[in-house]
Amino acid sequence: MMNAIPKWLWIALGLAVLIVAPIGQGNYFTLILCSWLMFTIAAMGLNLTLGYAGQISLAQASFMAVGAYITALLTLNGIHWIVAMPAAVVACFFIGLLVGFPALRVKGHFLAFVTLAFNTLVVLVLRNEDWLTGGSYGKFNMPRPDFWIFNTARKSDVLGIALSSNQKIYYLCLITFVVFAALMYGLIRSPWGRAFKGLRENPIRAESLGLDTRRITLLAFAIGSAGGGLAGSLMSPVVQFIEPNSFALVHSLRILLMVVVGGAGYFFGPMLGAAVVILLPEFLRFTQGYYLILYSVAVIILMVYSPSGLMGIGDRILSKLRPQRVVRGDMKEGAQL
Amino acid sequence: ADTMKIGMVVELSGGGAPAGTNFRDGALLAAKEINASGGVMGQQLEISEYDTGTDPQTSRALVQKAIDEGAYNIWGTVYSSSTIVNMMVAQQAGVPQITGSEAPNITAQGNPYIFRTSYGAQKGIPALTAYFKDTLGAKKVAVAWVNNEFGKGGHDVFVGEMKKAGIDVVADIPSEAGAADFAADVARIKDSGADAVFVYLHEEESARFLREASKQAVQAKLVGEVTLTGQKVIDLAGDAANGAVAHVGLTADAPLETFKTFKAAFEKEYNRAPDHNALKGYIGAYITKYGTEKAGAVDQEKFANTMHGLCLKAAEYPGILMDTCWDDSGEMSRPSFMIEVKDGKQVVGETVPAN
Amino acid sequence: MEQFLQVLLSGLATGSIYALAAIGFTLVWQAAQTVNFAQGEFVMLPAFFVLIAMNSGLPLPLALIVALAVSVFVLGFLFKKAIVEPMQKHGNGGGLSLIIATMALAIFLKESVKEFYGAEAQPYPPLISGGTWNIGGAIVSVTDIAHLAISLGVVVGLTLFLNRTRTGRAMQATAQNPAVAEILGVDTNRMVLYTFLINAALASLASFLITPVYLAKFSNGEYLGLIAFIAAIVGGFNQIRGALAGGLLIGVLDNITATYITAEYRAAIPLVLLIGIILFRPQGLLGTSEGRTV
Amino acid sequence: MSQTVLSVSHISKSFGGIHAVRDVSFEVQKGEVLGLIGPNGSGKSTLFNCVLGQLQPNAGAVTVKGQSVSGMRACDLNKLGVGRTFQQLSVFPEMTVLDNIILAGQEHHGTMLSRLFGAPDAGLTGEADRMIEFFRLGHLRDEMAGSLSYGQQKLLDAAMAFMAGPDLVLLDEPAGGVNLTMLANLKERLQTYNREHGTTFVVIEHNMEFVMSLCTRIIVLAEGAVIAEGTPEEIRSNSQVIDAYLGG
Amino acid sequence: MLELKDLYGGYGKITILNGVSFKIPKATITTVIGPNGAGKSTVFKAIFGLLNIHSGQILLEGRDVTGQKPRDMIGHGVTYVPQGRNVVPQLSVYHNLELGGITADDQDRVKQRIEVVMDQFPMLRQFRDRKAIELSGGQQKQLEVARALLLDPKLILIDEPSIGLSPNLVQEVFRTLQRLRDEGVTILMVEQNAKAALAMSDFGLVLELGQTRMHDRADTLLNDPKVGQLFLGGHMEETD
Ligand SMILES: Nc1ncnc2c1ncn2[C@@H]1O[C@H](COP(=O)(O)OP(=O)(O)OP(=O)(O)O)[C@@H](O)[C@H]1O
Ligand SMILES: Nc1ncnc2c1ncn2[C@@H]1O[C@H](COP(=O)(O)OP(=O)(O)OP(=O)(O)O)[C@@H](O)[C@H]1O
Ligand SMILES: [Mg+2]
Ligand SMILES: [Mg+2]
């Protein structure tokens, strides 16, 4: 059974698969994997804001945009990615703080609206201020970073294995992803994670227990947004082309879809969700024009069957295996009074 | 090998679906004809379709995929914003790409593997300058354009031309792709006192614009490039389209035998009328055929070299529909038409010679 | 002045159609606590039913009736029974996952129309036609006036229905506290169903009115759904007349922005203005605050 | 040596036309257990909410340990050492009982940063477990708080107020729905805290037996105003109170 | 009047009720007592059709009503006042009351009944047009109790009415229930305020761990030393 194998073994196994995944694969497949890793990072950020802290945000794609454009502008001007990336992440952190401020006054759908407006505004600024952003032509040919013995811009042998530029950039994505995931894991397990959940569950009570809900709300936004920024700063060298429409509202909705399909509030949810949202359409491509139809039906069925997403399916299967009636522990024990 | 793999990367969903679908259908029609007559250098065309969803990044990944899967040529994309991105991939891999896009900057990149099926706005719009200046005698013009890659390219060329011609642009009104409500745009144009309006929008937006202009009784002449007088626009706008004028590089209603034959074949195959994107797709497929045969080998680099500076006569190469030449940047030239809508019909006026 | 009047009147006319979509949106929000991201597609689809009916030879009035019936069945009944109801069984009203399901539904409807009817816009016959009037230099069509009148009528009618009739109040109770309503013997399931049927009917009405302007196209819903969402929020999300006010406000603001402020930022300026309203009045324009929470 | 922990002076609050609280003043000394009783709608909860910053009073001032708390946020009040419970159930429904309790205590352990990087929950878990055991919720430790019965949630709520280790605790109907045996335990715990830590309590409660046996002093509100104040014995025999509240 | 036969049930798959059986005669008051989490509220939910019943039977006047919906139960003349807060927050007090009679065919009669219950709880008349959410905790409870009386029920299930009510009002509610009993209404009530409740009841029922432990005449239970020790606050009196 699942429980027989310890968690860390599963994680090690998963990592091993991710390490060998692009070997011997074509460029397209490698790039799809990169795309999966990038969106997973963005979705994990949103999962913190939405899944744990319960603050709805429809602006994650715009943070990817900010991260991507900052990275693009810096790296096109000769600054190394390793410097540009933290700059992008920090910038997104602070912009996230700002976007979080309305969340102190409004909740739920109003907050959705404010973040939606922010996303629209970012996209329009990117398109209209062409002196900086290249307007609707976007920015292209961003350099891929060179890490001395590991130059992602060129193909070469690493440890005796011939790696293409795309494969190397995949490993950059993978390393970033692993580091980010580890940080997130620590955060969620720390008392901060509990505070985020408290904010989601009952903010008034949380406040009366000494939790500074304002600070927690802002942090939830800022950290989540920084995740978006990190994803964006990967996108710039991976895709080597960015333009405003790639960050439009529909893409924020897509990231939301990843979070919920995977299972909001589950640590591994975004990884599964991003895999489904990005990889499933690829598998369905052979159905030609019908793939989006099939895909949307699949999502509806999943949501109807398991509202807590793919992670919830696991729970449901486990509970199917259990006996039909469960007598709760305390109900079986003898009288306690 | 006795098959030739083609990667058709086009907009089959999303906002560009109408254009992409037409391009595809035109290309498939041509491919069917080509295969029936023995293929290209004895190889049958084997076409894989890739739907970009009108998303540039997806299109880039899909061009990569098509190349991974061994495509000899890439056909598409139609939307300039996608082409500008994915053409880099094809260029790196040395795969010729035959695009339906018209944005000026596509052939300005110095990419030796890109070829157009219809010339860029920077060649089409100047053909209108004389019309504004001499025929209409306009002093003040307004321009309504769609604020994306396609519209911005055209808009910039147009504004430059007007400046050269000494005509004032008194209202400069961008709108979003897919915009539905043109009340404010038209009200501004009316208020600006322009004698003529240059309408550079996609088909459906053109139709909505024409309707609103007719509702608000705009007196100024409405002039377009390619789209404004398309059959689709006329169908959608109804009476409101009457009087609109456009310079058109390709139209299924051109009074030429080759076009009539094409139109009949397309209608037979698909039960609907083709538009200029269908023509582009059709021509694009034949470019692959004729270019390869001219090169004398199924070789991507030779193909590209051959295409640069190539001129084809429609009499010998009927699939090309009109006498056409390509220059070193992949830009093309061929004759074009002025069309006016009268009583819901496209009336082809003078033919503008190739430039 | 002339221009302003024109822009104002045109804005009101389109705004009134937004309002119709927004009202249904608000109702569904109340009944199922869900943001229906497919609302735009609900407005897109009925026009295609009309076209299909007409293509099979029915005259327009009959086609409209058939389309209305089919829409109410598909977008009201089926939507409720096949998607919303099973999800609400899982508790907490379906929550986020229901929202996601409606997003997927939006894709499904859009892609199905495209696949089975075609990607290109189709001309669509106007429901109301007539000449235009010149009001102080601004040109207003009979259609515009009719649109305004219809939305006002719908709002008045619905408000009366919800406040004055027993069914209406039972629907309100269901919306506000389904658990209590259930205990009091309200057939909450049926009340929610009514809401969905009304929403489908309103969406069809909006569809019949707006498609002549927008042209029948599979992607029409993308913009309309967003507008309905925004109008509903601005209006307060729990008020029918709020949705009307929200719809009209968006229509007018949009046009005024495009005319006088900036066409480039047309899509954002109204949103930014509305954010001001929301931060200032978090309960929306006409909404009421939640009252005590402790 | 008596020290004023809470001082409420001339608080008024009205909603529209209703004067929920009219010019109420009182002081609470350290170590007191003050009862606040009165008929339904007499303004008790409103008064609490004014004291705790959930509501903005129309007039009057509140000081805690000599410090004015007007406009102060609930979390800062908590840091000052003020804990509370709510009249309506107020737990974190989708978190386990244990997490509810630890969350209640964690703000008083370590700094913001140490809570992020330090060993999580150091020392807290043990304390939380003791608290859970005390309120006989041990078998429910890992259940979601939302699935507890009414009385269990009420106890959890009280446990959370204690976890914050406050000097002043305001309890709004802690006994409602709690089984009498557990109630006795609750009372005992209150008294222990009161005795050992000098914790001050203000309790709103309709259960007279509980109030009378627990409180050292009682204030009676009616229609928003104080109508009586005194020891339990005095209140029990006050005819005005009997008329307005206790009934015959 | 009401009979439960070996009832098993719970939330989802979790079983809370482990064989609850009892019978209550018509026109009596039965008080259910038991520790927190014993399953008292769960029994009420089961009777009123709000629970997954795994096995067992519920008979109302001899008719099997197991698994019927709340709506059906109201049709049979059963009303239910749950624990906690259960008003429709944004509707006025009057409309909340009116909702209590939503299933009745004769709306004029409902209007009359509203006047009657408002006489009984004068507070309701005073706050007639205020939104329910603006009422104090106890005022909301009064509204709920009043609402349950609206339809002339045959059987009232009332879960801890005393929570949040001031003592005089508790007495008022108890007196009302007794009067109703005398008029032939059957009442099943949960109370932690057990001594007072048993004193006014005919029967008492002790529930523990999802099972019926004792079921006897109220005065017998009141005088039972064990019950007194465990449920009537005997412990408390000692420290008093
Ligand atoms: N948000 C509000 N809006 C309007 N009136 C309110 C509001 N909150 C309380 N009230 C009114 O103020 C008065 C006092 O209410 P409060 O909740 O303080 O009473 P309470 O003493 O706590 O009563 P209970 O014992 O029933 O809980 C009541 O008449 C109530 O209706
Ligand atoms: N929604 C639920 N989901 C899962 N378990 C529940 C749920 N509600 C109650 N329980 C569990 O069922 C058991 C019985 O609960 P119930 O509410 O019936 O107790 P009760 O006897 O009414 O207690 P109280 O006196 O505290 O109201 C408790 O252990 C509780 O944890
Ligand atoms: Mg109170
Ligand atoms: Mg209970």
Q: Any chance you could write out the topology, listing elements then pairs?
A:
The complex is a heteropentamer of chains A (337), B (355), C (294), D (248) and E (240).
Chain C: H1 2-32, H2 39-55, H3 60-88, H4 95-117, E1 132-135, E2 138-141, H5 142-164, H6 166-176, H7 178-183, H8 188-214, H9 220-235, H10 240-261, H11 269-280
Antiparallel strand pairs in C: 1-2
Helix pairs in contact in C: 1-5, 1-6, 1-8, 1-9, 1-10, 2-3, 2-4, 2-8, 2-9, 3-4, 3-8, 5-6, 6-8, 9-10
Chain D: E1 4-15, E2 18-29, E3 33-37, H1 44-51, E4 59-64, E5 67-68, H2 74-79, E6 82-84, H3 97-106, H4 112-117, H5 124-134, H6 150-163, E7 168-172, H7 180-196, E8 200-204, H8 208-214, E9 217-222, E10 225-230, H9 232-236, H10 239-246
Parallel strand pairs in D: 3-8, 3-9, 6-7, 7-8
Antiparallel strand pairs in D: 1-2, 1-4, 4-5, 9-10
Chain E: E1 2-11, E2 14-24, E3 29-33, H1 40-47, E4 52-60, E5 63-64, H2 70-75, E6 78-81, H3 93-100, H4 107-120, H5 122-126, H6 137-149, E7 155-159, H7 167-182, E8 186-190, H8 194-199, E9 203-208, E10 211-217, H9 218-223, H10 225-231, H11 234-239
Parallel strand pairs in E: 3-8, 3-9, 6-7, 7-8
Antiparallel strand pairs in E: 1-2, 1-4, 4-5, 9-10
Helix pairs in contact in E: 3-6
The complex binds adenosine-5'-triphosphate (2 copies) and magnesium ion (2 copies).
Enumerate the spans of chain D where pLDDT stays under 50 for 5 or more consecutive residues.
none
Percentage of residues in strands of chain C:
under 5%
Average predicted local confidence, pLDDT of chain C: 87
Cα(first) to Cα(last) distance of chain C is: 51 Å
**How can the largest sheet of chain D be summarized?**
6 strands, mixed
Question: Cα-atom Rg of chain C, whole angstroms?
Answer: 19 Å
CATH topology type of chain C: ABC transporter involved in vitamin B12 uptake, BtuC
Q: Give the count of helical stretches of chain C.
A: 11
Distance between the termini of chain D: 40 Å
The topology string of helices and strands of chain C comes to HHHHEEHHHHHHH
Question: Regions of chain C with pLDDT < 50 over 5+ consecutive residues?
Answer: 290-294
- Can you name the CATH architecture of the domain at 4-94 and 167-246 in chain D? 3-Layer(aba) Sandwich
Keywords (chain D): ATP-binding, Nucleotide-binding, Transport
GO cellular component, one term (chain D): plasma membrane
Domain ABC transporter (chain D): 6-248
Pfam families (chain D): ABC_tran, BCA_ABC_TP_C
Please provide a written account of the structure.
The complex is a heteropentamer of chains A (337), B (355), C (294), D (248) and E (240). In chain A, 70% of the residues lie in helices and 5% in strands. Chain A is mainly α. Chain A has a single domain, classed as Orthogonal Bundle (ABC transporter involved in vitamin B12 uptake, BtuC). In chain A, helix 2 packs across helix 11 (249-262), helix 4 packs antiparallel against helix 10 and helix 7 runs antiparallel to helix 10. Chain B is of the alpha/beta class and 355 residues long. Helices cover 42% and strands 21% of the residues of chain B. Chain B contains twelve helices and 15 strands. Chain B has a seven-stranded mixed sheet with strand order 7-6-8-9-10-14-15, with helices on both faces. A five-stranded parallel sheet of chain B has the order 2-1-3-4-5, with helices on both faces. A three-stranded antiparallel sheet of chain B has the order 11-12-13, with no helix packed on it. In chain B, helix 1 packs across helix 11 (276-295), helix 2 (56-68) packs parallel to helix 3 and helix 8 (203-215) packs parallel to helix 9 (231-237). Chain B starts with a strand and ends with a strand. Chain C is an all-alpha fold and 294 residues long. In chain C, a hairpin with a 2-residue loop joins strand 1 and strand 2 (138-141). Helices cover 74% and strands 3% of the residues of chain C. With 240 residues, chain E is of the alpha/beta class. In chain E, strand 4 (52-60) and strand 5 form a beta hairpin. In chain E, helix 3 runs parallel beside helix 6. Strand 7 of chain A pairs parallel with strand 2 of chain E. Residues 44-45, 87 of chain D line the site of one magnesium ion.
